[in-house]
Every structure is written in C-alpha cells, then in structure tokens.
TrEMBL record:
Keywords recorded for this protein, A-Z: Cytoplasm, Initiation factor, Protein biosynthesis, RNA-binding
Pfam families per UniProt: eIF2A
Entry-linked PANTHER family: EUKARYOTIC TRANSLATION INITIATION FACTOR 3 EIF3 -RELATED, EUKARYOTIC TRANSLATION INITIATION FACTOR 3 SUBUNIT B
GO MF term list: RNA binding; translation initiation factor activity; translation initiation factor binding
HAMAP family noted in UniProt: eIF3b
Name this polypeptide is given: Eukaryotic translation initiation factor 3 subunit B
Encoding gene per record: PRT1
Record region (Disordered): 693-715
Example GO biological process: formation of cytoplasmic translation initiation complex
Subunit architecture: Component of the eukaryotic translation initiation factor 3 (eIF-3) complex.
Family according to the record: Belongs to the eIF-3 subunit B family.
PROSITE patterns (UniProt xref): RRM
Subcellular compartments: Cytoplasm
Source organism of this protein record: Dendrothele bispora (strain CBS 962.96)
Length: 734
C-alpha cells in the first residue's frame, strides 16, 4: 500500500523556508516628557508629535504609538511607546529626537524599551573604562598656513581632478590628485573650507591637508548646490522629485515619506542632518507658461540666520535657522513681487557682530547690532507704478520706497560692503518699440537713503560694482543685432566707468571706451584693476587689462588731492590679450592673477586654461582635451583688525625689504642652480668630446697597425705569360 501524505518528511523544506519572528523589543522606544492631557486633546497631541518627528526625518503615524492612561485621573502618564519597523529606525529616532524641545515646558527623552530592564539590573560594581587614544583631527583651513602664501586652484578634465598650488613660477606645483568616483562637477564652499563633488547618490564634501571625506548628503541625481555664506548650510536641487522607496534607511540624514514630491533640500553641513525640503513647482496663473528655474532658489542672509524664497506674484517667505521654521509663522505678503536680494554685511558690521557674540547676547558692548536688509521690486499693475522697496529684517520695517514708471524689467545689484544698491531699470517708450535704461542708486549708509539716477540712452548688458569702492562699470550697446544676434555677428558695445562725486552727491562718468566687443566686466577683488572680456563669442575673444588708479597721486583722489576734472585721466590700459573660445574669467583671491578657461561644456575647440598677471602677461597656458572646469580656491576674511592692517601698511617698506631679500636669495639660488646646470652640461660635453677623440685615436691607431701588418705579410708573385707575336717559317739550305 503506497504511503500517505502524512508519512512524507517535510522537515528539510520547513527548515529552508522557515520564518523567524522578531521577539526582541529593541525596536520599541519609550518617549518621556510628553505633556499631560485629557482624552479630548489626544488626537491633536499625537498629530503634533508625529509632525515633530517628521521634521527631523523620522516618519511615524499615530497607529505606531501607545500612550498609557491614568484612569483614575482621566489623563495620560506623561510618556508613550513608539514601535518602529526595526532596531536601526529606533536608533535613528533616539539620535534625532533625544533632548528635543517639544515646547517651552517639555523636552523629549528617548530610550529603548529594553534599556529599562538593563538599567534596573545593572551591575553596581564600578569598572574602569578603557581610555581611548586621542587622535587629533586635521585642520580644515591648513592651506592658509602655507609659508609661501600661495593660493590653490582646481581643474577638472575628463574624469580627472587636480588641485594645484599657484605662486611664483618656482612655487607652482601639484598639491593633490584625488581618485574620486565619477561625478558631475566640483564646487568650492564660499570660504574655501570644503570642495564638493556631485554624484548620482548625492553630494560629498572633502577637505583638510589629506583631502579626506568630511560629509555626505543623500540627495539622488542632484544637479545644483548652493552653500550658505558662512558655510553652515547647503542647499541641493534635483530635477526628479524625491522618492522614498520601501525599506529605505530612515533618520535625520535621510529623506522621509513626508519629503516625497519635493525637489529642494536644506542640510546642516556639520551634522549632515536634513533640515527641510521644498518644491519648485510654484503655482502659476497661466499653466501654459513654463517658468525657468531661478538659481539659487533659496537666498541666504549674509549671517546665515535666515533663508528666504520668493513665490512670484505673491509673497517672500523667510525661514529661521537652524529650525527652518517660518519667521513669525507668516510670510511677507507682497502683491506682484518678482525678485529680491539680501544686503551684504560690511566688514564693520561683521566686526560688531563678532564683538556682540563675544560679549553675549545682552548687548553689553553698548552698540546696537544692525539688522539685515533686503530689497525687492514689484512691476506695474493696473494703475499702480512699479516699485523698489528697501526693508529691514526681522523688524519688517520699510526703510525706503521708490516708484518707477514704464518699466519692462529690473535687476538688483548690491555693492559687496552693502554701501550702495543699484537697480538697473529697463524702461520702454510709450510705444513700447524701444528699450533704454536707468540706474537708480540707493546710498544705503546715509540718512533717509537718498537715491541718485543715472540716465542712459542705450541698453545695459552688464553691471559691476568695484569691491569696497565707490565706482562701477557698465557695458551698454545700441547695436540693432543685440536682441537677436546671428551666427558670426559680433555685438558692438561701449564700456563706461562712473565714480561717486560726494561734492555734488551724484555719480560722475569717468571715461567711456567706445566701439568695443567686450560683454563681461571682472573687477579684481582688491579693486582698482578690472578686466574687460569678450566671453562666449565664436569670432572674438579679447581681454583688456585696465588700471583705474594708474597715477600714484590718484590713489588719494577720495581725499580731494586731485582735481575732479582729471579723474578719468588715471584710467590706463595695461595690456591686451586673446584666449580663443574663452567661456569663464575669474580673478584669484589676491587680485594678482587672472584665470581664463574654455570649457568643453560649451564648445570643443581648443579647450584649456590660461593664467595671466594683472598687467595681461601670460604666465601659464594649457590646451587640454575634455577640459571642463577651473576654479580658484576662495579665502576667508582676514583675521587682522583694522589697526593691525594699518600698522602693516605703515611698516610696509620693512616687510617689503624682507620679501625682496627672500626673492633675491631665491633668484641667486635659481641662478646658481642654473649656472651649475650649465657647467655640468658643458663638462659633460667636454668629457664626451674627449672620449670621442680618444676612441677615434685608438680606432685610427688600430687601423694603421693593421695596414702596416698587411704590408709586411704581402708576398710578391710573378706570373710569366708567353705570347706569340709573329711566327716566320724559314728554309735552311745546306
């Protein structure tokens, strides 16, 4: 009789496919510090708790919680339990939410449920902990201590990155050649502390003398990044909305399901924590109109205390850091608002802020810390004129407004010390057939914020303030091909320089350079020197190096020692150059060198880079296939006080003498090495000649002896040859 099913042994299959159930309670977390409430407020409390957890990247639902109740009092006991999917999520929740302030009176304390039993059964016998060996961390700004005071730059070519030291020709060398996995592009942080690389899985930061990995931010397929001015925060953006797959890691450094559908993320650089996400899909009155992304989409205040974004036509939303909560829980409602810009902090304001931070937040220094300022503009709507507004924040006080008429477009330009704000206003005639430009310049440091107007007949294509100065330069054009240049057509432009005349309280034109092709202005970070470049043209690639204080006595112009009518006479052309196909022009932080590059991202003809001095003399030129990027490493603000800087300028001749002696010694060393090298070459040449002569002589002597031996060994052999010349027959008669 055949066996039944019950007789078959399935033990091997059951062992193979058995499911082990999780019996541990390590995935359960106890949360103390919960407000004591009655059951009528339970639903709101749980919703608030879930929201607080989600803000720190921990996704929970009310169904995941259990709150014990005191039935006698009808209230909860001040703690609750949360069940997570696994122990890793529980650990992430404890790391993110322990000591988190829920409100002014309650702070969360989180522990594993199993810790309660472990602490209860803890051995009370003291055991000496093992002392860990201290390992000092690398200084992230060690490059500033370079004895030769050199700057650094990074080049990105093909899949290869190189970081170089740059100084005098004898000091230029390769600093580091990292072996990083493939990435999109590189970017320095604003103060040069980090270098960022964009990968498919997110952003990585590198730094220190050994260029070790410092931090990472998990934003897949990231395309754009933006650092905050003080390097405390990072903004990332990707085209694809955030998607959190099932089973993805959770925690403060990862996206949660609440972030799905957003594109922009804000991160804390030191901790790597995600602070908040936003969407770039702003509602538009006309859905058929596709609005191009404005980057940066979030704009930082200069002290990293606030970050703001504009909803075009509706409002400006300002968020506080590090909580990323909306300031005063309300946005600035501004009908029709188009764009805004924060006012930079001056060196004086930064010094006062640092002193206030040192003395404490109670203002014991006796000086009031100035508030941040921002400027925004609104277009003409119905019978309302266009308007530019200067606003103080966080008090939200309106400092100054200026009405504008017949406005097509506005663009805001702050001077880097926040002394001036230029509003470039593109105006149209009543027929709207032609465009001209006005410059509305706010003098922000003066009482009532006076506004000066510079009227121009042409269209302004570029504007740039002189750093820490009272001058600016513009590129203007009346070329009919300006709006729609065809292939091979070069736009003719004029470049003009302006200077503030404090006697007349207006901006006086210094000089106009006519009939140029320049379309980009690049001021030296130290001021005075400026480069006019033709960028992005297939037919022109000219560079002009100008000095606006060529005469020594003209440096005292601001003190009135030079006649105002002669202001423009000091503008001098130092040199001209050409870099075919130039796409980028950038000064180094010292203002002594200029780098130009032709990127393969724009075209593939003669890609590479060149470095020039401030007079236009070419120092380095490299033509490299697949060349993509050249970036100088930024430097932070000097740590020297104003008094120390004045003392250095006062004793500059003494310092110069030391540097000149070092240069002389280096030059002598170079000359000595050069002479020794030449002498060595000559000695090698003479030795080679002597050796050749000796070998020739020996060879000649051997050949002579061989010839003589051949003559001595020669045998004379005679050969007799009989030849019949004539035969005669004669008869003999007897």
């Amino acid at each position: 009789m055949p066996g039944t099913v019950d007789d078959i042994d399935f033990s091997d299959i059951e062992a193979k496919y058995s499911v082990e159930y999780e019996e541990s309670l390590d995935n359960t977390v106890v949360v103390d510090g919960v407000p004591v409430i009655d059951k009528s407020k339970l639903e709101k409390l749980l919703a608030k708790i879930c929201k607080e957890f989600s803000r720190r990247g921990i996704s929970i639902k009310p169904d995941d919680t259990f709150m014990p109740w005191d039935d006698a009092k009808g209230k909860n006991k001040g703690y609750l339990f949360i069940d997570f999917r696994n122990e890793n999520e529980a650990n992430a929740a404890i790391a993110a939410m322990n000591d988190h302030p829920f409100d002014a009176k309650h702070t969360f304390k989180l522990n594993h449920f199993t810790d309660v039993e472990r602490y209860a059964n803890m051995n009370e016998t003291y055991a000496e902990p093992e002392t860990e060996e201290y390992t000092p961390r690398e200084h992230l700004r060690a490059w500033l201590a370079d004895p030769q005071g050199r700057d650094q730059y990074v080049i990105y070519r093909g899949e290869e990155v190189q970081i170089h030291w740059h100084g005098k020709p004898s000091q230029c060398e390769l600093a580091h050649k990292p072996q990083w996995e493939p990435f999109l592009y590189v970017a320095w942080s604003p103060l040069g502390t980090y270098i960022a690389t964009l990968h498919r899985r997110g952003v990585r930061l590198w730094g220190g003398p050994s260029w070790k990995h410092q931090q990472r931010f998990a934003h897949p397929l990231v395309k754009l990044i933006d650092f905050s001015p003080c390097e405390n925060y990072l903004v990332t953006w990707a085209v694809e909305p955030i998607v959190v797959p099932e089973g993805a890691p959770q925690g403060p450094q990862y996206f949660s399901p609440d972030d799905e559908g957003n594109n922009i993320a804000v991160w804390d650089i030191k901790s790597g924590d995600l602070l908040r996400t936003f969407s770039t899909n702003v509602e538009n009155e006309n859905p058929s109109v596709k609005r191009q992304l404005q980057w940066p989409a979030l704009k930082w205040s200069p002290d990293d205390k606030f970050v703001a974004r504009v909803t075009p036509g509706q409002m400006i939303s300002v968020y506080e850091l590090p909580s990323m909560g909306l300031h005063e829980k309300k946005s600035l409602k501004i009908e029709g608002v188009v764009d805004f810009e924060w006012c930079p902090l001056s060196d004086k304001d930064r010094d006062e802020a640092e002193k206030a931070a040192t003395n404490g937040a109670d203002g014991r220094s006796g000086k009031k810390i100035p508030e941040n300022k921002l400027a925004y503009w609104t277009p003409e709507v119905a019978n309302q004129p266009a308007r530019v507004t200067l606003l103080s924040f966080p008090s939200r006080t309106i400092l100054r407004q200026k009405n504008l008429f017949n406005v097509s477009e506005c663009k805001l330009y702050w001077q880097n010390q926040g002394d001036f704000l230029c509003v470039k206003v593109d105006r149209h005639t009543k027929t709207k057939k032609s465009i001209f430009c006005n410059l509305e310049i706010f003098r922000v440091r003066e009482k009532d914020y006076p506004v000066e107007v510079v009227e121009l007949k042409d269209t302004v294509t570029d504007f740039a303030w002189e750093p820490k100065g009272e001058r600016f330069a513009i590129v203007s054009s009346s070329d009919p091909n300006l709006g729609n240049p065809g292939p091979g057509i070069t736009i003719k432009t004029d470049v003009s320089f302006y200077q503030l005349d404090r006697g007349k309280n207006d901006f006086k034109p210094l000089r106009t350079l006519s009939n140029r092709t320049s379309n980009a202005i690049r001021w030296s970070p130290r001021g005075r020197h400026v480069v006019l470049a033709t960028v992005g043209s297939s037919s022109k690639s000219e560079l002009e190096f100008w000095d606006l204080d060529f005469n020594n006595e003209d440096a005292n112009r601001r003190e009135g020692q030079v006649a105002k009518d002669d202001w423009g006479s000091s503008i001098q052309l130092l040199g001209t150059a050409d870099h075919y196909g130039v796409t980028d022009v950038e000064w180094d932080p010292s203002g002594r060198y200029l780098a130009t590059s032709a990127s393969a991202w724009t075209h593939t003809l003669e890609n590479g880079y060149a470095i020039w001095d401030f007079r236009g003399q070419e120092l380095i030129k490299q033509i490299q296939d697949r060349f993509k990027q050249f970036l100088w490493r930024p430097r932070p603000r000097t740590l020297l006080s104003k008094e120390q800087q004045k003392q250095i300028r006062k004793n500059l001749k003494e310092y110069s003498r030391v540097f000149e002696e070092e240069d002389q010694r280096e030059s002598e060393t170079v000359n000595t090495e050069l002479l020794a090298h030449r002498r060595r070459l000559v000695d090698e040449w003479n030795a080679w000649r002597a050796r050749c002569k000796k070998e020739r002589a020996e060879q000649t002597g051997q050949e002579g002896a061989h010839e003589k031996k051949k003559e001595d060994d020669k045998e004379e052999i005679e050969v007799w040859v009989d030849e019949v010349i004539e035969q005669i027959e004669e008869e003999v008669v007897e």
